[in-house]
Amino acid sequence: MSNARSRFSAQRKASGIIVQPVVFNPLTARIAQSLGYQAIGLGGYALGSALAISEPLISVGDLEAATLAITRVTDLPLMVDAGAGYGEPVHVRQVIRRLEDVGATSIHIEDQIYPKRVHYHAGVEHIVPDDVMLQRLEAATKARRDPDLVIVARTDAMATDGYDEGIRRAQLYTDAGADMIMMFPNNQDEAERAPKDLPGVELAYVNSSGNRLGRGVFKPRDLEAWGWKLVSDAILTTNVASDAVWHALETMREDGTGGQDGQHMREVRKRVEDTIGLDELYDIERSTVEK
Question: Which domains can be identified in the chain, with CATH numbers?
């Protein structure tokens, strides 16, 4: 776990942008690893959708279990979305330590209200006063026992109070000890300006493929040129996986099959088995119970 944290620290110090796909279970994490990604994220939207309950209803236990399940099967640095920190400073302290113990490399908490409302999915954001967020950050930074655990402060202030307030809060949270800032510019102009207005601050941008709010989805090379350090996509894996399952099950209902080419499906199955390490398990059995 500490090795993943030290590698993420090295990635942050190196030149170039970190492209970090958001996953929602161990299989999607292993797929990202097999494709050569160097870091992954466990997103609230993605996990809430995978559990079919929505992000605001995710419990600390749900989040802890998902984090552990992923870190058991991959050593990629994992950024975990801890929402609004699950309450007051004592709750923030507890959740940081629980996620640190199960292998999170970085953890982000946000300045939205707690309990978080489902309406945030529709773009209705409710942020807390900055002093409340500062208390959360103080609890989070003091809670970590491994100095390589990265605390990411997320602000949604640009959506609620405008660009300038988002920049002010980003600087305030950085001064309070946040290692990285996650923020949500409203348009391309703001996305280009933000790194210039926050010199020396590590910024994380979140693409949201399929979002209905008009927020920009930008290529990593553009974000890197503008000065962002990390980019993820909160809902890409959720959307494409769901779309594929919908299509296959609709076809199966109509003609009894998934409508897939047999040879292609054999290739896909083999790829899945390679991803989960089936050959290694075969080898163990061949040398023991199947000898």
Answer: 2-241 (3.20.20.60), 260-291 (no CATH)
The stretch 210-225 carries a mean pLDDT of 92
Please report the beta strands in the chain, taking only residues with DSSP state E, as ranges in sequence order. 18-23, 40-42, 78-81, 106-110, 150-155, 180-183, 203-207, 230-233
pLDDT, tens only, 223-238: 999 999 999 999 999 9
Comparing CA positions, the residue from 103, 102, 180, 187 lying closest to residue 141 is 180
Residue 276: the pLDDT is 96
pLDDT over 60 at 282, yes or no: yes
pLDDT at 257: 84
Instruction: Report the candidate in 19, 23, 12, 10 with the shortest Cα–Cα distance to residue 71.
Output: 23
Name, in order, each residue with C-beta under 8 angstroms of 14's C-beta and a sequence gap of 6 or more: none
Q: Are 112 and 82 in contact (CB under 8 A)?
A: no
